[in-house]
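Apologies for my clumsy wording, but can you show me some protein sequence, whichever is easiest, together with the matching structure tokens, please?
=====
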Amino acid sequence: VIAFFRGFIQESLSLLLWIFAFALTMLLDGYLDPYLSELINNAELKRMLSLILIFVGVIFIGSFLIKVLRGLIHWSGMGGLDRLLGVLFGILRGAILIIIIFLVLPENIKQSEFIIHSKSAPFLNEFAPKIETFFKNMISNKNSAMLDRNIAPIKKT
């Protein structure tokens, strides 16, 4: 329903904006440290504030640009198509979100009668392993890229 009112442009670009903001935040990690050094002495707090400022800044600027673009789309008379595509995109995004939630569930809950006999079980059994492999490959590639840049990956404890 929300996707209908927001439309495809706002839905898709908002999702891409969050991904872009996260990637840019990781890329610019430490960029604001010299500017924050005058205000904050604690290295962890300085890094955290730097990451938050970059992320929020990218989201703020990107949201403004998306609203301008959405206005242009609706002004051009393509608002109906934008809303229809927004609904389809919202359904896809919801399906991916359900798969991700399923992946992080503890194994005992995944094997419960409620999940096994649910209407979504065939869908989850087919697509969850594919999404899991995708994320594992993405994390593996990120760690190897970080090693190439001499940045230590986050270690699991």
In short: The mean pLDDT is 80. DSSP finds seven helices and no strands in the chain. Residues 1-94 form one domain. The longest helix spans residues 43-75.
